[in-house]
Amino acid sequence: MAQCTAVIDIGSNSMRMAVFQKTSRFAFHIIHEVKSSVRLAEHAYNNGGFLQQEAMDRASNALGEFLLIAHSFKARKILCVATSALRDAPNKADFIRRIQNEHSLSIKVIDGDKEAYFGGIACANLLPKINAIAVDVGGGSSEFALLHEGKVTQTISLNIGTVRLKELFMDQEDFAGAISYIDQALNELPFEVCETLIGIGGTFRAMTHALMKKEDYPLKKMHGYSVNDKSFENLCNAILDATPKKLKALNIKAERFDTIKSGALIFARILKRLNAKTLLCSGAGIREGVFLSDLLRHSSHKFPANYNPSVRYLLDTYATHSHHGVECSTLVKRLFDITYDYLGLDPKWRSTLVIAAKLLPIGIGIRYYAYQKHSHFLALSALDYGFWHTDIALISHLLLFKKGVESADLIPKNSYESLLPDDKTLNSLHALLWLSHILLAGRYSAQSFELSLENSLLTIQAPHLYLAQEQLKNIVLPKNLTVVVA
User: Fold this and answer.
1) How far is CA 341 from CA 221, 326, 426, 431, 484, in A?
2) What is the pTM of this model?
3) Is 3.30.420.40 the CATH classification of the domain at 3-109?
């Protein structure tokens, strides 16, 4: 099943390639990424949109090496799309022909709506389901996709991009002209306001990186990170007022210095226009969208209901040796359903607990001894898609276990504690998860258990529970719950 697909995105500013490997029908992970700042649109906007020779030479050289990398992974498909710089260029046919002749690579130039759609389906499938507007500010244009109930319902592309704005206005210090140009373009948006804005692309990721560094954010994942409008607006203003030395102090990388101000200005005007209150970062964008449009071509570009590609990837890769996680997930559902009201647990925790149970054995795929730590690390590292950061922190933390120790006492210092629920909830969920594991110590079916709760007494009956009785003492149960195994 180790099938690889390489996706190349030729943008106005950067050219990127991601290599995706499937682990089952819909599950995948990225096994390689490469980026080259070829600046294909450099000096084009001051020359009637014509691509310049040096920029085309850089792009051709980078593409040649991209293809060598793709072939090294035995990629069965190489999908290459080009966006604003190429679609605007009067000499695009010359460049496309050159790349075909030199590298035998076919470039598909996509229009703005298609570019917006690819970014939109990446967000719709790889972020938690949310109604929002996805915005991808690129070098030559900005794409907008309206997301509603997991679908892309409307798209539009506007000719406002970081390189375009830099060359037309910022290099001449025409700040007022830049604002007027952006605002005039934004008047074409077919939607008025939106509570949540999803940021796609390198500019937004650079700004997200700066915000996460400033607040010493506990989870080292940009995908799914959220910030309120005031904090984001303050960063935009700080960037616009900053010298290069100050940009470095703001944690902006040097490679972004020449375009970050135009990017910050574009986002600031978009934020004002849409009146968004929450901004969410998507680490997935056009490359993931192109890949998903191919992967999900027979399912309306949507994953099946309740399907998560990150969970499936972890199970495909690290839990092929065991069915134990599936049995634990079945049993923990029953334990939760019979105890959640008594324990004062919100029903929303049920699905999170079930996923943690499915992932219990993944660490064994690394090493049996201390496998709980391996399971925790794998979940914390690889649960990228479809989860809020609070979900990722909780699922991965529940997988930690130490005999006779409550879950709240296992939180690593200076880590993700701020993303976890209160100690009572955390300890109760942890107890139910590991109770399911211990009850299934003999690797029996989860359906063979009879459960009953009367007052504070949880009675568990099954044909073979000797090992479970022996191990029960290792769990710290909620103080108001007594478990009897018979």
Assistant:
1) 34, 24, 15, 15, 19
2) 0.94
3) yes
Q: In this predicted model, what pLDDT tens digit does every residue of 349-398 receive, in sequence order?
A: 999 999 999 999 999 999 999 999 999 999 999 999 999 999 999 999 99
Q: Is 1.10.3370.10 the CATH classification of the domain at 309-485?
A: no
Q: What is the pLDDT of residues 5-50, one digit of tens each?
A: 999 999 988 899 999 999 999 999 999 999 999 989 899 888 999 9
Same fold, 113-287 and 309-485: no
**Residue 323 — φ and ψ, nearest 5°?**
-100, 5
Domain ranges of the chain: 3-109, 113-287, 309-485
Residue 350 confidence (pLDDT):
97
Other C-beta atoms lying within 10 Å of the C-beta of residue 310: 20
Query: What is residue 2's predicted lDDT score, i.e. its pLDDT?
Result: 62
In angstroms, the CA 105 to CA 307 distance is: 34
State in words which class domain 113-287 has: alpha beta
